[in-house]
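Quick one, probably user error.
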């Protein structure tokens, strides 16, 4: 048995509108939005009374998808620490290839993002950086050099 594909990555956020704006600024397109609740959702999550709103976004090439979820009930629980560093166990980052790293960072700053470290050049191949995005996640950005 093998997997067919990576379907999507899910991020739980407090402010769904702000998170959507952040990822739309990055170039993602909103595929759909929906409220989700019911006994099946409770059983799937192992929680009682789940009521969430989700937004599904996709990359311009149509291959990558990101689900943004905000919980109405039960209340979302904050991870510790709130803004984990790169050596924290668990999901580290989501990386996106971009055409213009500087312009992308500038656009994301308008949506509350800030650099985690510095913008660096790796050999003659890439310019890279990490920005802190919605819900404290680390978004990695990569610009391939010619």
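Nope, works fine. Designed sequence:
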């Amino acid at each position: 048995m093998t997997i067919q594909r990576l379907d999507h990555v899910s991020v739980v956020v407090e402010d769904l509108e702000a998170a959507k704006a952040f990822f739309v600024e990055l170039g993602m397109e909103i595929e759909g939005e929906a409220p989700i609740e019911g006994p099946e959702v409770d059983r799937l999550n192992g929680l009682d009374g789940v009521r969430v709103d989700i937004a599904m976004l996709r990359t311009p090439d149509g291959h990558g998808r990101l689900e943004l979820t905000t919980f109405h009930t039960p209340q979302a629980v904050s991870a510790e620490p709130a803004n984990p560093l790169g050596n924290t166990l668990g999901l580290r980052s989501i990386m996106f290839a971009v055409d213009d790293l500087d312009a992308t960072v500038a656009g994301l700053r308008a949506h509350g993002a800030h650099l985690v470290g510095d913008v660096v050049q790796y050999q003659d191949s890439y310019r890279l950086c990490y920005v802190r995005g919605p819900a404290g996640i680390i978004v990695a950005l990569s610009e391939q050099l010619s």
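The two ends are 39 Å apart (CA to CA).
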